[in-house]
Automatic annotation (TrEMBL), chains A, B:
This protein's UniProt keywords: DNA-binding, Transcription, Transcription regulation
Gene3D superfamilies: 3.30.70.920, Winged helix-like DNA-binding domain superfamily/Winged helix DNA-binding domain (1.10.10.10)
InterPro entries in alphabetical order: ArsR-like_HTH (IPR011991), AsnC-type_HTH_dom (IPR000485), Dimeric_a/b-barrel (IPR011008), Tscrpt_reg_AsnC-like (IPR019888), Tscrpt_reg_AsnC/Lrp_C (IPR019887), WH-like_DNA-bd_sf (IPR036388), WH_DNA-bd_sf (IPR036390)
Keyword Cell membrane: no
GO function term, MF aspect, one: sequence-specific DNA binding
Pfam families listed in its UniProt record: AsnC_trans_reg (PF01037), HTH_AsnC-type (PF13404)
GO-annotated cellular components: cytosol
One Gene Ontology biological process: response to amino acid
Domain of life the protein comes from: Bacteria
CDD domains reported in the protein's UniProt record: HTH_ARSR
Keyword field contains Transcription: yes
Descriptive protein name: Transcriptional regulator, AsnC family
Length: 153, 153
DNA sequence: ACAGATATAGAATAATATTCTAAATTTACA
DNA sequence: TGTAAATTTAGAATATTATTCTATATCTGT
């Protein structure tokens, strides 16, 4: 089924940059009719190339531009321990991403807060309240050089 | 200027989950008129609470669901070295995120590839071809537990 | 080269975004 | 606390876009 041609790839690139392009605008860029663009996008959605459309909010404007990365080691690596940890972590809204990773540490999480002082509170009151955690190591973002949502095709 | 009320926050939450909600749908959810919703969204855009709207593409479907995190140490930390490194890194499309961080390592980058074998190629042919790098440490994503674009208000 | 399937263009329609106006609500401050 | 100005809202009117439909063109596999 369905291998993407250059037009599809171009479309995905454009929609990843700006999901508000109209079919008319896209039609102009890709030298096709709005209908052709429309049908292609619908197909990309049906086939799950496009998962969803979202608004990106400015973290600075809502006082969530202090970013920390925390590497986490679990005490044990049983199925139960992993499942418990992952479901607890999902309940903490400050944690915006969580990856189970290879290496010395088991998890890498990304945390968005307003400032450093909140990080202390986050660690003491939330993260380390989770059982299963053995130890952690944190790194703070000094500067976000870039952080794309788009995957170039 | 402009402090967000509960309606604004609710709106931002909804649009971060699904940017395709129509003003009519949002009006129903928030018990307002479509015009009121429309004006509020336009204001949030004008005031840069909303940066942009994007389509999220399924990494698995486009063979970019192998994820690695690489911590990078620079040889020197001069302004010139930092600037050079950051501009070089920005040219490598596999690197989807780059943060200047505190700690032993200077940078944390996220890389999206198709599979492990490509990672070797990425390291040998691309990343370590960049001068200024002293050493690196990599961790591979075993599982993406979650990775939100939304910041809860 | 041909039949079936798929993609496209253009017209028609439906739905939504956008603008406009007046009323309601909130805000600032006398 | 009262009042004028500013902001927000609702509803109607309009403009734009999404969506459907039909016929034609293009592509695919044999």
């Amino acid at each position: 089924m369905a291998t993407l041609d250059q037009t599809d790839k171009h479309l995905l690139n454009l929609l990843q940059e700006n999901a508000r392009f109209t079919t008319k605008q896209l039609a102009l860029k890709l030298s096709l009719s709005p209908t052709a663009i429309y049908e292609r996008i619908k197909k990309l959605e049906r086939q799950n190339y496009i998962n969803r459309y979202v608004a990106l909010v400015n973290p600075r404007k809502i006082q969530k531009d202090f970013v920390a990365f925390v590497m986490i080691q679990l005490k044990e690596h049983t199925q139960a321990s992993i499942a418990a940890f992952e479901s607890e972590i999902a309940l903490i809204p400050e944690i915006v991403a969580c990856f189970h990773v290879s290496g010395t540490y088991d998890y890498l999480i990304k945390v968005n807060l307003d400032e450093m002082s909140s990080f202390r509170n986050f660690m003491v009151e939330k993260l380390t309240k989770i059982p299963h955690i053995s130890n952690t190591q944190s790194a703070f973002s000094i500067k976000e050089v870039f952080n794309h949502t788009a995957l170039k095709l």
